[in-house]
Amino acid sequence: MKYSGAEITIKLLEREGIDIIAGIPGGTNLPLYSALGKSKIRHILARHEQGAGFMSHGMARSTGKTAVCFACSGPGATNLMTAIADAKMDSVPIIAITGQVPSSLIGTDAFQEVDTYGMTIPITKHNFLIRSAKELLSAIPEAFRIASEGRPGPVLIDIPKDVQLETIKIESFDRSFDEDDLSICIDEATIERAAEMINSSKKPVLYTGGGIILSGAEDILMDFAHKNSIPVTSTLMGLGCFPSGDDMFIGMLGMHGQRYTNHIMHETDLILAFGVRFDDRATGKVKEFCPNARIIHIDIDGAEINKIKKADIAIQGDIKQAIKQLLPLIEHNARKKWTETIMDMREKYPISKMVKQDEQSPEVMIKKIGGFAGEETIITTDVGQHQMWVAQYYPFSKPRTLLTSGGLGTMGFGFPAAIGASLANPGKKVICFSGDGSFLMNIQELSTLSELNLDIKIIIFNNRHLGLVRQQQEYFYGKEFIASQFYCKTDFAKIGEGFGIESYDLEMDETPFLTLEKAIKKEGPVLINIPLAPEKNVTPMVAPGCANYEMIGGEINE
Amino acid sequence: MNNIANTTIELIVNNHPGVMSHITGLFARRAFNLEGIICGEIEDGSKSRMYLLVKDDDRLEQIIKQIEKLYDVLEVTLREDYDHTIFNR
């Protein structure tokens, strides 16, 4: 039978198990949309390509499966860039398929032409510019393999319009190859050396990150930590890989980590860096990060090993496999002394007492919301103060329940990601924590949400500021507040209602917790505006470029 | 002035438009220095051989690891014994 390039693309996406695609049509991808119209794949029409890109993030980050987004050439493609770059930084398997001007017009500055291929080289794991319909047959399965294999990441496929229309003869779309088995055993001698180093260590700490979640190693990590009594800290990307209520969990480390966490890191004599990349937000000044510690670094991406910190033992491989091999070799050990030291640290540098007193503080609100929501609920955040409060105080206990833009730090991420997560997880509740600054960056997707009527709660902490910018100006720029305040008082509840979404404003609400509880337990979309004093800061904070033990704020008496 | 010696990395890559961009783009993005490039197609033209002249400093390990991750790069070999003067001709 004869198929067009567009039909081949859709057939291959179906074969890969894709059932939802978020995107926006335009002149150069209309053949793809024609083919999509005849397919069982459900299309979600976003209101901005960045929204479509982050919807695919929501799907991929919450399920671990590769997700797809569509955009046309030119502005459609450039609008996708932020979502693609975000996927590269956070290792998210997405495939962006863009239309391109016809091959004969490439290089002529045609209408809506942009060098999508050239522009996406540094922000993709790999990219393709397709030159014939036949090429699609190998490029699309390759794209899926590349996106999900090893360390996941984004792949872009740019398809000129004439290639979408070119017809070729194809006998069958059956899969012609088998999946490779990637569970490769790690060198036993290295594992033995690592186990010996762990067993002889006096003050070990597990420094865990997104790699644990990507490898599905959370259960075995739990056994590992408890068998040898090793406290677990997590990066922002790793939150959820270890239950926050567990005795062994010592919180998130780094710039907005708790005081005791960063002090414990300063004490440790061995860090087990599992699925982490020594990001500057986690390490602070690298030279002074864990100055007394040796390092065992395990990562599937060999380029991460020795990139920032030289490892004493380096293992390139899958974390789950590595822990599986390590587990029988490490001793049962209660580590009484180290456990006591950690308890002392928790006493000496506790989570700010003020937080416990102020009922209306965002920290308390977030904890309470966590109680209303239940542990299956998926949380998305935007970027800024609210994101750090969620990271510090939300009671995460399962992997893939926190979707956040960690590496790129994209404001506007949370809301479209929530839509994607909800689409991919029918029956699960999704809460998007946002700030007024972030929410305004992708607010147009309220229109999409209203159509889809998904079980998403949007919580906006509204201080009418770019809060984390204001905070940095207060701490580090002599309180010279410039370009961090919004003078317009936006009525978000009214905006929500304008899109047909049930909305609440807690400003004059005398029973805010009751309203929150009702809103969260209800099905369907709800928007809640929570006013906040602009002076409220996220503490503790490590100044950019400083060592993690030099924290500002968050002391007992604050 | 320039007391760090140079060394040569030899690559075998898929030969299609865009491969050179991937390689030079990697060097630019990660702020690695690239002192010289020689490139030409080999065999039936589906592959190219490339020689990259780079500084032999502590970033070399990271450069090689990052190049190895590129999809179109098939082989990476460090050629410490090669004569670098060819890049000056």
Describe this structure in words.
The complex is a heterodimer of chains A (558) and B (89). By secondary structure, chain A is of the alpha/beta class. Chain A contains 23 helices and 22 strands. In chain A, strand 19 (502-505), helix 23 (512-521) and strand 20 form a beta-alpha-beta unit. The longest helix of chain A is centred in the N-terminal third of the chain and has 16 residues, at 133-148. The radius of gyration of chain A is 24 Å and the shape is globular. Chain A starts with a strand and ends in a 6-residue tail after the last strand. The mean pLDDT of chain A is 95. Chain B is α+β, with helices and mostly antiparallel strands. The model of chain B has no long low-confidence stretch (mean pLDDT 90). The radius of gyration of chain B is 13 Å and the shape is globular. Chain B has a 4-stranded antiparallel sheet, covered by helices on one side. Chain A binds chain B through residues 117-118, 121-122, 125-126, 129, 146, 301-303, 306-307, and chain B through 18, 21-22, 25-26, 29, 61-62, 65-66, 68-71.
